[in-house]
Specification:
The structure is a homodimer. Chain A is an all-alpha fold. Chain A has nine helices and no strands. The first copy, chain A, binds a DNA duplex through helix 1 and helix 3.
Chain lengths: 215, 215
DNA sequence: TCAACAATTGACCAATGGGACAATAAAAAG
DNA sequence: CTTTTTATTGTCCCATTGGTCAATTGTTGA
């Protein structure tokens, strides 16, 4: 457990919350699992590889997680938390509804997150959602929060009916742009992606509000 | 090979092109592979299951396909062909650029195709793209054609620069809506999806063309 | 210092995987 | 009716996998 330990740039360890050694190990293993997922995909992700990635033995993995499924479920939660934090951080600095909207959008394409490997792992996890109840629930929660964030901003900018539609469009568009990144790395830049979504929002807001007050 | 033969609704067999028995077998196996993918995902898709699905023995699968990889690469081609045909069929009946645009959009959400199982299989395949050169190429071709179809329609409706942007947006939005369907079946209806994309296009076209001629 | 406990390992196991192959059945060709 | 391909099966092999477990090695607190 020396040189093989994977330390993502966003893998800072809060010395306060991680009192227990076991918690540290668990976090290490979750991250190792995710790293393996990035490289090998769900089909190639084996307990042994995860152990190796964490610089430990296979036994230890099953000591901290009941089984493979549970391990990867926690890996998904971990990854989601990171993504979510990026959005929340930006959200805290936003004042107007429009700023909050941009916060969500830009947070979803954070420089160090909007990267092919992360996307590949994410894709693999998503591909298993239909066969893993827990993964499905996590996914559902993630989407619900995203949606909620969007709606709270949009309610100040459009009718509830329109806000709903636009929120769906934004989430779909974001997911679609991530997918593009995963399928053809380099085909979408962070800036392009952000612009796309912002343009979409602008287009929809203009289209749906039939001249509210006029300039 | 009697009752277990899977015959998708879209699995019509052209008696002209499929002279050779081997071609029939290959097509059966490709479709069986895809069916297994729908149920089990890439991680659970095994040669034995594919064989069972086709009502044959494992040996026969490897008789027609060099190895597992090749089998699933052909499965992806097959699925793509189906999707593509749906679009092409509609495209043939379209006259104006706008009609062509709608053809692409509606073709991508064809009733009997826009279904969770198909999406799940598709997702599993996409998740493997980063580790399979061939899959990546197929994926690239698919996207290129889609893009080309969109651009040929859009060139009559927007500047080349804008057309590019809009084409990217449309593909991403379509993919994103499919993803939603896969992650939360029932959360997006075919009609909703189509409306979303059409609204997007309308919003963008209105936004980008600063009053070309005026009504 | 020593007992209690947590962490960690490595050996082990049964099941399953992909793939090779020889043997057999079925067709086609002559 | 042979001969020659082609289709198909079942068996065998070996590597791998998820998971269990007993044994070992720290750690810690009394």
């Amino acid at each position: 457990m020396d040189k093989n330990v994977n330390v993502d740039s966003h893998a800072w360890i809060d010395p306060v919350k991680l009192k227990r050694l076991s918690d540290i190990r668990r976090k290490e293993l979750r991250q190792a699992a995710f790293a393996v997922l990035e490289r090998e995909g769900i089909a190639g992700a084996t307990l042994e590889k995860v152990a190796a990635q964490a610089g430990a033995s296979k036994g230890i993995v099953l000591h901290y997680f009941r089984n493979k499924q549970e391990l990867f479920e926690h890996a998904m939660r971990e990854a989601n938390a990171v993504l979510c934090n990026a959005v929340v951080a930006r959200l805290r600095q936003a004042r107007t509804p429009m700023e909050r909207l941009d916060a969500v959008i830009e947070g979803n394409f954070e420089e160090h997150l909007f990267q092919p490997p992360l996307c590949h792992a994410w894709l693999s996890l998503c591909a298993e959602v239909p066969r893993d109840e827990k993964l499905a629930r996590i996914q559902k929660v993630i989407h619900a929060r995203m949606r909620s964030n969007l709606l709270s901003s949009l309610h100040g900018l459009a009718s509830p009916r329109d806000a709903n539609d636009i929120a769906l469009g934004v989430t779909a568009l974001i997911d679609g742009l991530w997918l593009r990144l995963g399928l053809q790395p380099g085909s979408v830049s962070r800036e392009q992606a952000i612009l796309q979504v912002k343009n979409y929002v602008a287009g929809q807001l203009a289209r749906r509000e039939p001249v509210t007050v006029g300039a």
